[in-house]
Each structure stands twice: as C-alpha cells, then as structure tokens.
Write a structure and sequence with these properties.
The chain is α/β, with parallel strands linked by helices and 135 residues long. It is built from two helices and seven strands. The chain is globular.
Length: 135
C-alpha cells in the first residue's frame, strides 16, 4: 500500500487530480511516508514506480475512517484494474495499490478521491505505460 493523501503545509490542496490524470506516471522512489502531500509526476518514458489507472470518488457524507476507506479502495481499485491493464489483477504480474484521503484532507480540502496505482510485482521500475499491457 502506498499511503494516504493529505494537505500540504502551504495550505494548497494536496492532490486535486480528477479523472483526467488516469495514465499519469509517478515515481515515489525508495521510501514513502504514511502521507503523500504531492504526487511525484514523471514522464512515462522515464523509469517510474507507479502509474495511475483509476480515480474513484468516495460516496460518503462524513469521513468514514481509514479502515473503511481502505476496504472501499481495495474494491474500487480491483474493479478498475482489468479495464486499464487488460487482464485480471489475480492473473497479472503487476500489483495494485491506492491512496485514500486523510481526515485532514477530507475536512480541509474536500478530498473524496481514491487514487488507484499499478506497479511491477517484483518492485522493478516501470518504463512506458502499462495501459493495455495484459500481463
């Protein structure tokens, strides 16, 4: 799992992505904290750790809690994996993970998005897009 989204110290929303970022490549490097305040976007032609394959809205009026968001994210991201990759997550060499809102980003930034990401199952960097790769 990657981590949760939270607002940055500068008062700007941490992650305002929307569905138009599907396909965006990210490089989180070797270490990642519990909270992600900015997405490390890179060109997909460069080695990278993850690619965004879905952005899903959370359907809740109040913050449901981290555990509930994690359960929802797993189901939401599993559902979108095959559409983007071309093969079931259970039959893929790739892994999927997600970022969910924190209580702070939920309250302060109206953050209601689950960001689904895919990476290499063995931890090797991705090079190029994995959209439709069917492996």
């Amino acid at each position: 799992m990657l981590g949760a989204c939270s607002g940055g110290d500068d008062g700007e929303p941490a992650v305002d992505v929307g569905k138009d970022v599907v396909g965006t490549c990210l490089d989180f490097g070797d270490t990642i904290g519990e909270e992600v305040t900015k997405l490390p976007v890179v060109d997909c032609a460069e080695p990278h750790s993850h690619q965004i394959y879905a952005v899903e809205q959370v359907d809740a009026e109040t913050y449901p809690g981290f555990e509930a968001l994690e359960a929802d994210a797993q189901a939401l991201c599993l559902r979108g994996f095959e559409d983007f990759i071309g093969v079931s997550a259970f039959d893929s060499e790739l892994f999927f993970s997600w970022l969910v809102p924190t209580l702070t980003s939920w309250d302060r930034d109206n953050d209601r998005e689950v960001i689904c990401v895919v990476g290499e199952g063995d931890g090797a960097p991705l090079v190029g897009s994995v959209e439709g790769i069917a492996r």
